[in-house]
Fold this sequence. Notes:
This protein is an alpha/beta fold.
Amino acid sequence: MNKLNIKLEYCYGIKKLEKEFVFSNRTFAIYAPNGSMKTSFAKAFRDLMKGEETKDLIYPERKTVREIKNESDTELTKEEIFVIEPYNEGYFSDKQSTLVVGKELKEQYEKIYVDLEKEKKNFVTKLKSESQSTDCEEEILSTFSESEKDALFDVLERVFISIDGSHTKYSFRYNDVFDKKGNVKKFLDKHSKTLDEYIKQYDSLVSQSAFFKKSTNTFGTYQANELLKSIEDNSFFEAGHSINLSDDSKIDSAEDLRELLESEIKKIISDEKLKKIFDTIDKAIGQNVELRAFKKVVEDDNSLIVHLKDYELFRKTVWLGYLSQMQNDIKTLLDFYTAKKEELSKIIKLAGDTATEWESAAKEFNNRFTGLPFKIKIKNKEDVILKTSAPVSEFIFDDSEKKNVNREELLRVLSQGERRALYILNIIFEISARKKAKQKTLLIVDDIADSFDYKNKYAIVEYLKDISEDENFYQIILTHNFDFFRMARTPNFVHESCIITNNIYKYENT
């Protein structure tokens, strides 16, 4: 872009402004004693950068014209514009993560990540069919996670060692009992005393039964039903096996087991006291329309109430039951993950040992802007690599004693000038990211040096001068500070400049 043609009419108070900028050395400086003019000028470009319409605030009914074109008479795109405001405390460059990890390493990681995601997706699809839950991955994580950084692979690695054939697979739909809204949990908490009564009576009946057993691992009505399901085709008995009971009696067929089981269950479930307590619970559930599915579950198997007392423990037990049906699938997934994890570890180590553009930008800031009470470093480099997170800056505050602080803590103790320096840091990150991407960019620099002491004001001029030597950057520097204007107009920096005078915004070339 060697030329820039602008035509502005009724843009935030600018009545009319037409100008052709010729960038023989890619930088142009404008001195505007009228501060509102330069602000309006910058706003028009900022609207283009954000993809927003420009208007006249006082006379919105007037027809606004905003034409910003290159020498080919083509409108500049929003990606080609970057407006640097005088100060914006909340500004963060959204391109910082591109500065942390090298392109090749990032591509290697992303390929591995895609492969892992594909295998995980296939596993989760199978698990969803098994559990009939709405969001398997999120629900398993919320059940078994030990830290915020846990992923599904981490949870499965820990849980897998405890999965064996002893875990009961419950047949109800997971979300009928563990609903997203938490209505079942609220109901159980509200009626905990009634539940305690039911459990006490149930345990008493089981302990008196000759068939069931109350112990650390209770053999109750549910477990007995599951046993019956596993042998109901009679193949177990046809193979010559039998079941010996504790009273020395022997079961030789599925039919005999069914009859005995039905008889024993009937003794417990038909107990008048237990039935009366269950009816109280069932009636309370029926009064809440959002618990219809849960009501059917406990009506199909009353004994589930015993397990629901410790709701979170039962949640884990239920998931272990589902997962126990998929032992081979879990092992296959974890074997694949282990192999890929080794590759990832190598990439992370290499990336961690490599100096990045982010660190170069931070170093540039630390070196250019001296006399500040803080230095900056990246806090979460590994997370940026692994999770494509935005970098988190950590600041080392030095007041004869060094201490690491976050941005909010730092802002509370900085002077206005020091806060502005922190703002410049994010500008450097943005420009560094554009340099890395070789993004052709027109910088509109609006009084960036305000409120700086002479030393740091000069550091800004030097920084802008260095930018001007990059063939991908063009600058229009706006200021109402004549000292800064004069400082910028040096033979090896700004060759073209002008002064805007009067309210009609005529140019006087300098």
